[in-house]
Amino acid sequence: MFISQERLDEQVQKEVPSASRLAVAALFYIQGAVFANWVARIPTIQQKLELSNGELGRVLLGIAIGAVVTMPATGWLLARFDNRLITTIAVLGYCMVLPLLALAPNVTLLELSLVLFGAFNGATDVSINSQGVDVEKRYGRPIMSSFHGMFSIGGMSCAAGSGLLAYLGVNPVLHLLSAGLLLGIVVIVASHWLLSGDITTDSHDEEPVFALPTGILLGMSIVAFCGLLGEGAMADWSAIYLQNTLNTGPGLAAAGYAVFSMTMAVGRFLGDGLTQKLGSVWMIRLGGLVAGGGLGLSLLIAQPVTALIGFACVGMGLASIVPIVLSAAGLTPGIAPGIALAAVTTAGYCGFLCGPPLIGFAADVIELRGALGIIVILSAVITVLAQTVLHTAPSENS
């Protein structure tokens, strides 16, 4: 019994998006996993090279420098070359650079390794989000938030596993080399099901290397900046606020970021279904209100329990905002998806980097409790600018 060509084509169209979705989800997991493996070994490497906290902070800037340089360049490459090829090279390179961080025999080589590590991280971020936009368009409904949820799962699971290896005294070179090779193999396998080409646009031979955000793209960039600034601030200041301002013990202080991370992961996996029901605009509006309202109330009632509730609200509120904005950016009319994603991602990454020092500078003037109010203000900005995603969202019910 023969299957008609038409029926075979329909079957392929149904199977390819499912396989591609799993492949892209695997790459998001890998991005979170690679970074978590590195973070777990920072104390060991700091001790090995006898770095002060100040020297370590300076060295870690290399990651940011590398990422900010390669994000726009990756968008340009995605507009001109095969999406699957660029994505595979970026993520595989990210895995392969990981062992170099443990092998660096001195500060200079560690700095250079971190710049390279950041460069591949930035390229990975733009390229896998571009793949996510392409797969989401094939599905015809929101799925981007679940991809970012896999990033969170990768980070949390590998942070725990890497922490255990560090506790057991496993050599960091052996650890990071094994992790890089294992994750690299997964990249090679998953790359077979990535989407080729750029299905959202035709030809972009005249596109610039970097698109300066203007108009609606500027609004989306501001939303991404505000959202990721809040994430960065929670990572660096939640524990300090609990321990130093609210006088909790170190155990409860550590729970602040854990609660934030957990609710963010949960929010990302619930986000796609809620976005389909409520629409992208209302999801962003509600996210900004939940994050800003919950944190604002917890700052007014300055108690450890309310602080944990506030951090949980920030995680849940911000969870779907960046995935929705990146999805919308990749579908912006008149500009190649990779370049639009690079512009918005770079703006968001700048927010993630600016958040911790901004909160720190403000805390010197108005104390940490008042400085965290910046996140409340930026959450309000997110709510106001939610309308910027309306023209491109894959499913709108607003």
TrEMBL record:
GO terms, molecular function: transmembrane transporter activity
Superkingdom of source: Bacteria
Transmembrane annotation, as ranges: 21-39, 59-78, 85-103, 149-170, 176-197, 209-230, 250-270, 282-302, 308-331, 338-359, 371-390
Subcellular location: Membrane
Entry keywords, A to Z: Membrane, Transmembrane, Transmembrane helix
Listed SUPFAM superfamilies: MFS general substrate transporter (SSF103473)
Topology of the protein relative to the lipid bilayer: Multi-pass membrane protein
Pfam families: MFS_1
InterPro entries: MFS, MFS_trans_sf, MFS_Transporter
GO CC entries: membrane
Name listed for the protein in its UniProt record: Major facilitator superfamily MFS_1
